[in-house]
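User: For a benchmark we're assembling, each entry needs the component sequences followed by a predicted structure for the full assembly. Here are entry 17's components. Please fill in the structure.
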Amino acid sequence: MVTAAAAYAVAAGTPDPELPLLTVADLGILRAVEVTADAVCIVITPTYSGCPAMHEISADIRRRLARAGVARVTVETRLSPAWTSDWITPDGRRKLREAGIAPPSPTSFALLTPGKRRGGPVPLTLGPPAPVPCPRCGSSRTRRTAGFGATACKSLHRCDACDEPFEAVKPL
Amino acid sequence: MTSSTCDAGALARYCLALGDDALIYSHRLQQQVTRMPELEEETAIANIALDLLGQARMLLARAGAILGQTEDQLAFFRAEKDFRNVRLAEHADGDFAELTGRLLIFSAWRLALFTELSAAPDPVLAAIAAKGVPELTYHRDYAAQWVVRLGDGTDFSHDRMQRALATLWPLTGELFRPDPGALVSVDPGAVDAVIDMVLAAAGLDRPDAVPPAAGTGRNGVHTEAMGDILAELQSVARAYPDATW
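Assistant: Structure for entry 17:
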C-alpha cells in the first residue's frame, strides 16, 4: 500500500481547472490524506460554496492516483473549518503574481470558525475597497473596476500607473 | 438553541427552508443573466447566483442526509406547497432597481442569519454558514453600492429606486416574523440598521411598514410566481427522471 506522504505528493500536483497555474496544494484546498489498509482518502475543501471546479478536481485526483497505482481512492469534501484565501501558500502567491494576477490581501473573515460566534455584525463597505497593488508594476495607484470576475474567486482592477487591467484573487 | 433541543427533524426542516431560499433566489438571478445593463453586472449576478446555488446544494444535501433523499430529489421532485422559501426569494424583479434593492434586503438578512448560524450546534450547518458569510458580505456590498448609486444618481434613477423599494417592502415583513421552525433568530434592528445606513447614503426614504400577508412561504404558501419558477426549474428533471449529469 502507498504511504500517506506518497499519496499526498501525487494529489498535491493536481492543478486547479480555473487557475491551472496553481495546484490544489498551492491553493490550500488539499486538506488531508488518510491511508487505511485498503484505501486512500483525500480530503479537499471548497473555496466557494458554488465552486464548480470541485467535481473536476475530485475526478482529476482520482485519475492521478490511479495512474500511480492506487486503485481505491475516495475524495471527501470537508467544509469545516471554512477555507480562507489566507491558506494560499507563499509559492502560490508568487505564481499568481508572475501570471499577472494579484494575490489576495489578508482576509478579515479568517477569524470566523464554525462553532464560534464572531464579535458583532460584519461591517458594510459602501466606499471603494482598499487598492490592490498592481501585480505588474507594483503600484498602489489601482482601482477596482468590478467586484466579480470571470470566476467566483476573482475581481477586476485597473492600474493607473502602468494602465494595465488585471485580475485579483479576492480575500475570502 | 441548545443541542439537546435541536432534534434531527427540526434541523432538516430548517436546512430545507434556508436551502429553498437560496435555490429559488438563485434561479431568479439566473433568469436575469443576459438582461443586465453592463457586462460587469452580468458576471456579478451570475457569480452571486452561483454562490447561492452552492449554498442551496449543501443545505439540501444536509437536509436530505436526515430525510433519506438526495439534493436533486428535494430540488426537482417536491411540490410547490412543500417548498419553504420566503416569498422575497421568488419575486420577479421588474427592473435593475428592484434587483439591487431586493438583493440588499435579502443578503443583509441572510448574512445576519448565517453569522448567527456559524455557531449552530450542528457542525455541518455551522460550516455551511461560516462558508457563506464572506460570500454574502460581497453580495450585500455589491447591492448596497448600486442602491446608493441609483438612489443618489439622477432624479430618474432616484425615483426608480424609491419605487422599487415600495414594491419590495410588503415582502420584507415575512423575514422578521417569529418563525417557530427557526434554529436561530436575527435581530431585526441589526438588519434594519444596515439597510437604513444604505438608504441614508442613497438619499432614499424608508417605505412605511406594511401589515404582513396572511400566509408565509415558510408555511408553504407562496405567491403566484412560484408555479412558473418550479415549472421551469423542474420540468426537465421530471420529464427525464432517470437522466444523469
